[in-house]
């Protein structure tokens, strides 16, 4: 059979095109199903989220704490009030030794607190049904407390009595603390006592020391040369005085121009001479005297010495029994009658040839060169001092008795106080104004201790009233012996004062400030080693 030519052949059907068609149709159907199912799932999720959010909002609204507590029918507030009152009754029940009732109240307080906690956890307010039992039981206990006279008036009276008892106990504790602190502050450490004895022994057993002292005393002209820088210290503490001299010498730009005039008592005179004979301080000139050698210092001239002869004064300061202990122990310290304390009011008599002198206490440390103090203009005043009235309690009314007419008439109670410890004294003006007689006047007026009680600062405030020139506060930084001091003030301070009971050479000294003092003590010195001073 002959085949037709190519051009006349019948086209053959292509089955591949139909397979592709059915495949595409199936994919389209599947895509439609998938898209439809996702839309329905999103819609269902949105619906469930909206339902949950609506429920959450309702819970939040149902637990509005502010509205709940302000509501007149608030069960939560009623329970809270009952708990507060029950807690007060628990305290009174325990004080009345009714421990069983206190236990019952405490147990009911815990039950009520559990109810409040569960309400807060489920974020829904308490209902009357679930809290009825707790409120009723607590109300019965509170009624029982009232029957036991645990009412508000009784509570107030008992609390007042308790406060009064606590105040009395605190007063007793404070008095004991003050006494023990004062005793600790007045103690002489064994090391200092040992140093004094060994120095005295060394002085009499070593002729070379006396020879050295005599050689140094050949420069008598320096002791009267007003072109030099003269400092005075009145003390019976050898080591403390040594720190003052040493720290001044180390910080002085011209130590050979520095002259120290030391005055002590007869007991420590030899030891003080021995110490400064065996030690040199960068060429600083040191003179040691004892106040017993001042013939003019007698009872006929000095009111303090005259008062010491009075039996009442002796009883006040030395017996402690004449006023049934009403006067605080710090006011009865015999050191306030010591001539070494009151000698500061006689500086022109002690150093008749000098025109200007800087007075330093023995509990200071010098950090800067002090030669600038001698060029400070005192504006015809006698005393240059740093004022301490930054706080109200450092004004005159703090130190003086303004119920006394003499004080009230002559002195402004808000006048600014100042500090002893680092003072510049113009001795020319002092002599011209006869300041020592002013001091004598007020000291004699205070023979019955009605003008002031404590120390040398009150008579100093009276004596130099209107005669004091304020100095820059950086010259004299106080408080290192009893309080915390700003580190910036300490860093800038020329003279650091350990005023207060916590002296740096005592065990009760403030540890964080001791290094400022101790760095001027040579603990490797044989005498300090022998006396176990460290």
From TrEMBL:
Membrane-related topology note: Single-pass type II membrane protein
Gene3D superfamilies attached to this UniProt entry: Spore Coat Polysaccharide Biosynthesis Protein SpsA, Chain A
A GO term for molecular function: polygalacturonate 4-alpha-galacturonosyltransferase activity
Predominant place of localization: Golgi
GO biological process, one term: pectin biosynthetic process
Pathway membership, UniProt: Glycan metabolism; pectin biosynthesis
Name this polypeptide is given: Hexosyltransferase
Lineage: Eukaryota, Viridiplantae, Streptophyta, Embryophyta, Tracheophyta
